[in-house]
Amino acid sequence: MQDKSDISLLRLIEDFLTARGTRKPSPHTLQAYRRDLVAIGQLVAEENDPPLPLAELPLSVLTARTLRSAFARFAAPRAPASIYRAWSTWNSFFIFLVTDGVVAGNPMSAVDKPSAPVPLPKPLRGEDTPEQLLHAVAREDQRQRHPWPERDLAVLALALCAGLRLSELLALRVGSLAGRAGERRVEVDGKGGRPRVIPVEPELDAVVLRYLDSRRRRFGARSVRREAVLLVDRHGEPLRRGGLQYLVESCYRRAGINDRVPRGARLHALRHTFATRLAEDGATASEIMWLLGHASLTTSQNYIDVTAGQQRAAVRANRTNRALGGLAAGGS
Q1: What transmembrane ranges does the database entry give (predicted)?
Q2: How confident is the model over 319-328, as pLDDT tens digits?
Q3: Residue 146 catalytic?
Q4: Which whole-number Å values give the CA distances from 323 to 84, 165, 293, 312, 318, in the listed order?
Q5: Annotated catalytic, 268?
Q6: What range does the domain containing 217 cover?
Q7: Catalytic entry in 191, 215, 254, 272
Q8: pLDDT digits over 81-130, tens only?
């Protein structure tokens, strides 16, 4: 194998990110890859003797020993999920380098990592919270500077009734909703390049059509052509990540449910609510996996397991059960 040990780490990171781009990851995912690669690279550069600027760090410095030391420092202030994500990114990076003939082997097997975290679902709290949210947003609020309830309701409904991720919502086109009345579906460009098709019930279909009608009145017929982005801001421009997050958070405030939204799962709480209700209503893990576009059946099964646990906890809290316990113990 040709000696490539003096190639700059930053150059190889760019090569890796370019190669990953063919999988159509979201910009947020690519930023996370870059952030994890640069963070560990910076720690290796700082610990070198003598310390090096990251831009001058050669591949040869990245050994099992230097990576173990860098990961130990990286791990100290961070949660296991963040450490595991960074380890996975670096493992993928070295697999890419081995495949490309840049290095002979992958040193990441010598770097410890936490167990893969099992993410717990974070749906909206409260039995009727989703309905309260939808009813509140459907009403025009004159306190808003630029009210557009039809658009806001469509965003929430697509997340709550189709389980779409933020990146999937932003990628939708007007033509993503296809099929005849009664057989409507939304065609989703899913995470990791996994497309899927989700059935659209008449109620969701009607909400989206009302939004498109309101958009046509605002911006004209050309604004709702099939190739146009589905979700737009008040100027008719495509919604961006920050704008969509702000829109959803403003909907929570208007509905007065901020205290029922799990921390760290603002828009994602809507998707988790969709999945949790599927599990509560008897959907199988494979059905949940298909509808949500999960890569692993384990992730989908987790919704069923958590739901079963919550149901058992609710039964355990029943006062009649507690009274029965006293009788079983011989109480009067």
Answers
A1: none
A2: 555 555 555 5
A3: no
A4: 46, 45, 44, 17, 9
A5: yes
A6: 129-316
A7: 191
A8: 899 999 999 999 999 999 999 999 999 999 998 876 666 788 899 989 99
